[in-house]
Amino acid sequence: MCHPRTHSALANGREPVVSGDPHDPTIAIDRQAFIRGCRLLIRPALAASLVPLALLTSACGAVRPAPLEDGAAVLRRAVDNARSAASVRVRGDIRATHSIVGWEGIVVGTDEQYRVAAMGMVIDARRIDGLVWGRPVDRSQPWVSVPSDGSFDLGVLLRGHVDSFTTVDDAQRIELRFAGVDVLHALSHVPSTGPTTATVTIQSGFVTEVDLRLPSEVSARVELWDYGAPLTVEPVDA
Description:
- By secondary structure, the chain is an alpha+beta fold.
- It has helices at residues 31-42, 68-85, 183-188, and strands spanning 63-65, 87-95, 99-108, 111-118, 121-128, 131-136, 144-147, 161-168, 171-178, 196-203, 206-214, 218-225.
- It has a single domain (31-225), classed as Clam (outer membrane lipoprotein receptor (LolB), chain A), CATH 2.50.20.20.
- It has a 12-stranded antiparallel sheet.
- It is globular and about 55 Å long.
């Protein structure tokens, strides 16, 4: 039987393991925007607070192909279910040859709260009422705020072209192809350039995982779980 992975380093009091050089030439992320975000972290504001989606499922059992139009309909229902749920826990990371950025937190409506690890720093980042707030988790520096660049948007998946749709045990997997759509930014607030492909896993009518592949061997994973849970984004304290 397949079992979803629910282990969380942050939930067990450990920081995400993140290392590496954002100037690495293999990285396909828009360098200028990414470096600006990292400088915010170091100075120490908040790099783009990141989010992005869910239970990591194992591929065991027979793969059953299905019509592409069915995949588009299943994906739309899953996105609609997520919007109706209004809250979800998220975890993700962006990788090249190593993890560049890692994050874990919650999305509640248009508000978000994450613990973000990048370049050896760990930031408490919150997106509340159109502002992004950040400070080191050790509270060594005060909160800094900048205008938000938008909210977490799972609906970006509906802008992709369905390449395949299969069922594996209790999970449905949809392969998507995007051109001219910054999927990474919509799910993590980190801008990227170039074409993107995605593997979307759906269980019980909800998107539980999105694996993104970008140029130059850059990849990202976003996991989502606890849809509809009674979650609350904490207010920014003094």
